[in-house]
Fold this sequence. Notes:
Helix content is 81%, strand content 0%. α14 (315-342) runs antiparallel to α16 (351-359). It is mainly α. The protein has helices spanning 2-25, 29-48, 52-62, 67-84, 89-94, 96-121, 131-141, 150-155, 160-190, 197-227, 232-253, 257-276, 279-306, 315-342, 346-349, 351-359, 365-372, 380-410. It folds into two domains: 2-62, no CATH class; 67-410, Na+/H+ antiporter like fold (Up-down Bundle).
Amino acid sequence: MELFILFSSLITLAAFFSYLNVKLFRLPSGISLMLMGVLAALGVIVAGYFSAGFTEMIREKLLLIDFSEFLLGILLSFLLFAGSLHVSVPDLRESSKSIISFATLGTLISTAAVGFSLFYILPLFDQNVPLIYCLLFGALISPTDPIAVMGILKKANLSKKIETNIVGESLFNDGIGVVIFATLLKIAVGGIENFGIKDIGLLFFREAFGGILMGLVIGYIGYRMMKSIDHFQTEILISLAMVMGGYSMCHYLHVSGPLAMVVAGIMTGNRGKELAMSDVTRDYLGKFWEVTDEVLNAILFMLIGLEIVIVAFDLNYLIIGIIMALAIILVRFFSLYFPSLLFRFKKSFGTRSLLIMTWGGLRGGISIALSLSLPASPFKNIIVSITFVIVIFSIIIQGVTVEKVIKKLSN
């Protein structure tokens, strides 16, 4: 019952803050909820100076939710599937070279560059973290999250090509980032001496390609079932089964659930909508997943803001986080620029487009969830704290200004 009351409180707060935003502030919903969640958390922390019992009570309630398990095990499957439904295969095919290179090579470059940057910055603050944990940090902070910025992209009249690249890259680099993180985590826990290049390659191959193959199977089964009937309630139920049953199956097969959901969502949103659904089903299914996406994002962004209450911050961690947030922006540009040069689409893409993608590449809940999923160690607290600072900086600073940056660079 306590968990139900906690979620009821989150939904109530999200509804109230969304109302205030629509009525007064008119910010993108994700950014406004995150900002108000942060302010609410700061209010709880300030209240703790007058009543330590109140802050401790709020902290205990928030600890009822395992944020990492809640996002990675539940929310992520729904959010990735819902986001993939709107991705057009023809647009994706047209930008496939850039999306694949950004999501794979770009994520690997970002993981290495961010990891080594943190490794050399930490000693300046009398902090020493092994390189493998710094690389883990690089892997968890590299995936970008387009959810908070999608409304802004549409308002800014961004070109379809850049919008497709931002969305497509982020959907796939979420999956790739999780696979890289899982691979590095096995090395960190088991020791590098127990993992050869062959073992690492096989693990990566099984997670990544196994996830893509599983997504194709899930998408095809769902498509065939939907095509054989015309009953929108059942077809919506089938789409839910694809997400929940499919993601659970990926977990037990040890393949990438995020990549499977992206592939299944793209299949359902394209071939499924065109050939397996009536106009009525297409309309209802689209609205169902749009509302589901909005509600789950409201809960997610509220939780990200409120989770500050349970994180042990240190002034040094705050400074390191801000330095790394700025460094990550530079790394983000390089991780886009290098693949565009290597695969020879830099000229057609343009430096302005890369700059827009750099500033529009927000970090979000998946980074926090991955940091919280780290096993207990002397290095976990600093990684979690720095991750929170970077995500808050990314969503609030970059998110609030990205529309102006897009308009300025588009002129």
